[in-house]
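Please check this today:
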Amino acid sequence: MSTHTPLLADKVAVVTGGGRGIGKMITRGLLEAGATVYISSRKEADLKSAVEELSPLGDVHAVSADLSTAHGVETLTSYIAERESRVHALFNNAGANWGAPLEEFPDSAWDRVLSLNVKGVFALTQALLPLLKAASTPDDPARVVNTGSIDGLRAPAPGFDNFSYSASKAAVHMLTQQLAGTLAPDVLVNAIAPGLFESKMTAGILSLGAEAVAGQIPLKRIGRPEDMAGIAVFLMSPASSYITGAVIPVDGGINATR
């Protein structure tokens, strides 16, 4: 009897913001594909819950770290470096949002959102670069996958006053492309631009009613966990070894039709 080797067996991934929402969807997919996964979050309760839920699927470890700070980046990097000599993929998924009318939008909202969504992405990629390069081979380079947003591809609809968030995600897309050129051929750098998935960040929109919201999406549904898991596994697997600098919408067709 032949045995099937999981697609990502013996590979190590880091998923920031892995305690809930899209990060947990990504983590689940990677574990099911055979990877060892390190997740981080600012909230220890989310991490504990995620590990309890996901550990039956594979080898998952959790580290509490605020990646908007240099200390948080060092905490996560040191934890991984003490346990692993190679990291095959970094999923920069941790993010913050802020909503307020233009006239009331605070300066602090820019600092908080940009520090995590943009500066944190750059800093952690920089810090983990030695471990990523150690995992890289000519046929299967290491990966960095950044979570952008369709709000970084086109302006949100009027009334969605997330000015610093949408600007940060546009910055993530450009940073992805610049890093892709800088790190080729050793590390492939791509971005996922999610549309509407169930998470704490989208709870306000979904409170209007999932069916009503889904009716505005060309594919007539919101994203499912397996949709996010699928693109994550693809971007970490050998199947994507000729793709770098891409920003891939995973949005049910919203960006293509609005």
In short: The longest strand covers residues 187-194.
